[in-house]
């Protein structure tokens, strides 16, 4: 099925609107023009008739013996100069004077009776057969000493009025055609100007759909389309970043699955076929157990992400002491801290800090952050853990460690799914880029915040907030 392009749809719609506007304007103009011309001709013919009436009365009063031939000459001159036909009637309706080209004329009573009553009349037609073509006729009474002594009729052939209308319409149509040509050029240019960036967006979207994630568009200078282009580029950046993280995740997970599975299969096979002697089997079974636990943690992380993204994570809020949880976590990680000769300092602004949160989830947050701190702290470095109230009525927990730090271009992505700053796997050999993503979502599920600060080569600090138990002792 044929689909109209945005350009053709916009262009044809705009042209149609312009044509409709011209049609409506032309119709209104023609109607107004007809009324105006009719009123104007009425006034002009009435003025001519009144001038002749005044002249006739003046002649009758000042020169009773004024020659009839001279009076006829005045009528002919007035008729010729105004392109009109003039008739002067007596009270009986007889034509006593008219344009010289006329022969015997008889006006029917229904056309002059109102004039003889003192009324101003107007007729359009042949005036009862007086004329062979349609005319526009105005009749006024001829008053002499406050009495009606006749009537004067002035007629203009309708073709003259039609010619005037036709000339004006021709001028109007010429103007419309000229304006329409200019309008079409402008509409074409504007339509192209609007649709070109949209076509570019469409082509870029198709390229991204085909896997070319580096495709971008140049934002247009127009406000809305420019904003659309910028939003598209941001979306493309996000998609490219997500694709990069997905690829890294697949590579990392594949490595994390393959390595322990290879180890497990190799050692189990060695035990079964007798390659590993019985006295060494407990040692290798311990390794198999560790690798199985590692696989279990990876699967658990993936399941937790699925639960979080489906909106199924609902924290079970309980009252507990975050300081005590930190103490216990430090004890669990003491061996790793000692093995790397890390200097650990813990500072609590109050002996206990009771918070309202999901205890197991917050334990996971603490374990993840402390595990990262130990992992990325240099031999002989330091880790500093602090808690206390902040200025927003929350309890903050801060975990800072020395080490390589996080680059500014990486820190804004540190909580993204699958994101790893150590792509070489030199330090983070077992990570999949899911831990901090899960941490952030756990805290967001509590309505809390977490942020990272770092000075490359100096330190990295993660800080998150928790809600204190109402009326808890400080």
In short:
The chain is of the alpha+beta class and 474 residues long.
Q: Count of DSSP E strands?
A: 12
Q: Major sheet: order of its strands?
A: 2-1-5-4-3
| Chain-averaged pLDDT | 81
| Helix and strand element order | HHEEHEEEHHHEHHEEHEEHHEE
N- to C-terminal separation? 73 Å
Derived from helix and strand composition plus strand pairing, the structural class reads alpha+beta
Main beta sheet? 5 strands, antiparallel
Q: Can you characterise this structure?
A:
The protein has 474 residues and is α+β, with helices and mostly antiparallel strands. Helices cover 55% and strands 17% of the residues. It contains 11 helices and 12 strands. It has helices at 6-62, 68-82, 109-116, 158-209, 223-272, 281-309, 322-332, 334-339, 359-376, 408-411, 435-445, and strands at 85-89, 95-98, 121-125, 135-144, 147-157, 318-321, 343-348, 354-357, 382-389, 395-402, 450-455, 459-466. The protein has a 5-stranded antiparallel beta sheet, sandwiched between helices. A 5-stranded mixed beta sheet has the order 7-9-10-12-11. A hairpin with a 5-residue loop joins strand 1 (85-89) and strand 2 (95-98). Helix 1 (6-62) packs antiparallel against helix 4, helix 5 (223-272) packs antiparallel against helix 6 (281-309) and helix 9 (359-376) packs antiparallel against helix 11 (435-445). It is rod-shaped. Residues 423-427 have low confidence and may be disordered.
